């Protein structure tokens, strides 16, 4: 497993966490959908859209959900590192599958300037 790949993922998760926490200060009451399809955060900081799908997308990516996702991914990284400590290489078995999982985790960040094409999962 590439230390660079793991560090790249850690850095991106730290970015996601920071951005989610910043969004939480703006939307302290969370994102939710009213019956009209409007997405709101509270009486002082409202965000409106008449597009129900857009509203559902914004509400589903509530900062609290992003923070839970960040922590879950960090746990998978820890598991992959533990597998790597047990196995000297990621050639086969569980350790190899964990490396594939981490490579899959990099895909949402493929447009990041530090992303490396060599991290793309192989079929």
Summarize this, please?
This protein is mainly α and 123 residues long. It has helices at residues 3-26, 52-60, 63-86, 93-106; strands spanning 32-33, 39-40.
Task: List the SSEs and their pairings.
Blueprint: H1 3-26, E1 32-33, E2 39-40, H2 52-60, H3 63-86, H4 93-106
Helix pairs in contact: 1-3, 1-4, 3-4
Distance between the termini: 17 Å
Determine the oligomeric state from the structure. Answer: single chain
What structural class do you assign from the helix and strand content? Answer: mainly alpha
Identify the overall geometry.
elongated
The neighbouring-strand order within the major sheet is 1-2
Runs in which pLDDT lies below 50 for 5 or more consecutive residues are: none
Rounded Rg: 18 Å
Question: Which percent range describes the beta-strand content?
Answer: under 5%
- What's the total count of β strands? 2
Range of helix content:
55-70%
Q: The biggest beta sheet, please?
A: 2 strands, antiparallel
Summarize the helix and strand pattern as letters: HEEHHH
Mean pLDDT level: 81
So how many helices?
4
What does this protein look like?
By secondary structure, the chain is mainly α. About 60% of the residues lie in helices and about 5% in strands. It contains four helices and two strands. Strands 1-2 form a two-stranded antiparallel ribbon. A hairpin with a 5-residue loop joins strand 1 and strand 2 (about 40). The longest helix is centred in the N-terminal third of the chain and has 24 residues, at about 5-25. It is elongated. About 10% of the residues are buried. The mean pLDDT is about 80.
């Amino acid at each position: 497993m590439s230390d660079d790949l793991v560090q790249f993922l850690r850095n991106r998760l730290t970015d996601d966490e920071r951005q989610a926490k910043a969004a939480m200060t703006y939307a302290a009451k969370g994102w939710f959908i009213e019956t009209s399809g409007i997405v709101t955060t509270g009486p002082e900081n409202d965000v409106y859209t008449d597009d129900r799908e857009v509203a559902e997308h914004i509400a589903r990516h509530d900062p609290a959900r992003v923070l839970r996702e960040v922590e879950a991914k960090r746990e998978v990284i820890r598991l992959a590192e533990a597998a790597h400590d047990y196995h000297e290489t990621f050639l086969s078995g569980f350790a190899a599958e964990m490396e594939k999982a981490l490579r899959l985790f990099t895909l949402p960040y493929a447009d990041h300037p530090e992303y490396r094409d060599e991290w793309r999962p192989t079929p």
